[in-house]
Amino acid sequence: MFRFENIEYLYGLLAIPLLVGLYLLYLLWKKRAISKFGDIDVIKNLFSDYSPALNLIKFVNLLLAFAFIILAVANPQVGSKIEKVKRKGVDLIIALDVSNSMLAEDIKPNRLTRAKQAISQLLNRFDDDRIGIIVFAGKAYTQLPITVDYAAAEMFMANVNTDIIPVQGTSIGAAIDLAVESFPKENSKRSRAIIIITDGENHEDDAIASVKEAAKKDIVIHAIGMGSPEGVPIPQKYSGMTMGYKKDNEGNTIMTKLDEAQLRQIAKAGNGVYVRASNTDIGLNAIFDEIGKMQKKEIETKVYSDYEDYFQPLIAIALFFVILEFLLMERKYKWMKNVKLFEVRKIN
After folding, report:
1. How confident is the model at residue 14 (pLDDT cuts 50, 70, 90)?
2. Residues 200, 293 within the same domain
3. What total of structural domains would you count in the chain?
4. Predicted pLDDT of residue 244
5. Does 59 reside within a domain?
6. Which residues span the domain enclosing 225?
7. Where residue 342 falls among pLDDT bands split at 50, 70, 90?
8. At 114, which CATH number?
9. Is 119's pLDDT higher than 50?
10. CA end-to-end distance (rounded Å), the chain
11. Could you tell me if 294 and 147 lie in one domain?
12. Is the predicted pLDDT of residue 341 greater than 50, yes or no?
């Protein structure tokens, strides 16, 4: 397995186009400065030993040295030893509603953002449990297959928004069906749970039927209700500013209400718990405690336990280019007397 230990340093490579641009500007400035002293062709004859080609080679050497130093600092590594590590935990899939109604602001800053923040905090509490992420609106999609890579889960969660699913609506049943299919088949006896985070306004399918099918496979389903039963409008924002509220075809403002009755039924049929979110507590902590009570069964996972560093050859290559740049002079060598790399011939 290949990786960079300090991958953030690779952003330094973005400086290369900037350096090339500055070098070209320097050449242009230099040409204009020389032209002020007289005819360029006459001045070139006065400096016949000067080689633009060698000047370019020296710059390229420095550029290559810079690139290899950046790669060395990022420290490429190759996994050299694989161990089988036994883990105990549960398999958990979080199904997050990303329909437009999740933009309602009865939970600050809005339902979706607050849910994402709570999930990110929850990830820090996991140890050997495996986690997957499903997003749903009118349809359901796998955002992250089940994994123990919590850093990847947090990164994928950061990219979740209401635009990632083009079909609007709230299809809780489709999300549950996809979650059931997403659990690994190699260890079906492992404790499994699904957390549904939604406002509960299911208009697309029979969610209870999907829950009952999941329960037959010993999959526990918990539900978190986002929003208020009284109902609030859905803001329409442009450049971060609220410019109005969503309306139906008749021009009436659409109100989104938390359907607690539906979510209570889902949790009951799924042998789980229902928690209503608030501005101070989304409810994931209570559900995490329930998951902690589940029997944690053992699995065997392959991991790369040791990595070998390969920055040394890159440092050596960078040093070679630095030394080469130091040894090269800007005056022509005998073998370059007839090299006219930058000469432009006039065609009569």
Report:
1. very high
2. yes
3. 2
4. 84
5. yes
6. 84-302
7. very low
8. 3.40.50.410
9. yes
10. 61
11. yes
12. no
